[in-house]
């Protein structure tokens, strides 16, 4: 007969870590109805500890399940007495504590904690005045809807893609690109913001790849909500009907 705690722990090994990977950044929580505030990574750690307690309690106090294929009459014959041959019920095997009971929650705590810290939105510590970029040297200005300069460094907002201005494929893309540029300028000038880096520091053009947040909300996602940007999926989407 297979050990019930082992079965539970092995299933939880697959499902448990997934619970800790629920999107935790502020924008994901807003989309999931979380009100736009980021959840503390300590919540994920506490969840791992509670999971550990539940699995240990199940191993110590849970009941064994009857093996499949043994019907009610068969169990009565084995565990009770017959008219001619009394049979004693076999002693239940001692319940051991599965190693997965400890491995799974610890893995969840590590994964959840790391993911939580990685997705905490940045502090709003950057502030500047952004004009529209003109010809010549550029220091701090807006190029288009997803690209701008700050203190002589060129940045590309990494979580979105906006319509092209320099090489549009249609008049509609050109018009939307101009709107996105003006809107990004307005958002950047509206107050302090923060950067969040991803897996890549810069793209092949030497632009720094950053997500831009204010008050825990992605400014790129705001442009998407307003119809002036596409969420970046690794390739450009068409703006022309």
Describe the structure.
- With 241 residues, the protein is an alpha+beta fold.
- It has helices at 4-20, 26-31, 41-61, 72-79, 100-118, 171-188, 219-225; strands at 141-142, 147-150, 153-157, 160-161, 194-202, 208-214, 217-218, 230-231.
- Strands 1, 2, 3, 5, 6 and 7 form a six-stranded mixed beta sheet that branches. The protein has a two-stranded antiparallel ribbon with strand order 4-8.
- Helix 1 (4-20) runs parallel beside helix 5 and helix 3 runs antiparallel to helix 5 (100-118).
- The longest helix is centred in the first third of the chain and has 21 residues, at 41-61.
- It is elongated, with a radius of gyration of 29 Å.
- The termini are far apart.
Can you give keywords for this protein?
elongated; 241 residues; OB fold (Dihydrolipoamide Acetyltransferase, E2P); alpha+beta; two-stranded antiparallel ribbon
Summarize, please.
This protein is of the alpha+beta class and about 240 residues long.
Radius of gyration: 29 Å
Structurally, how many domains make up the residues? 2
The main β sheet shows up as: 6 strands, mixed
What's the N-to-C terminus distance? Answer: 63 Å
Share of residues in helices: 25-40%
Q: Uncertain segments of ≥5 residues (pLDDT<50)?
A: 18-40
Query: How many beta-strand elements?
Result: 8
- Helix and strand sequence: HHHHHEEEEHEEEHE
| Helix/sheet category | alpha+beta
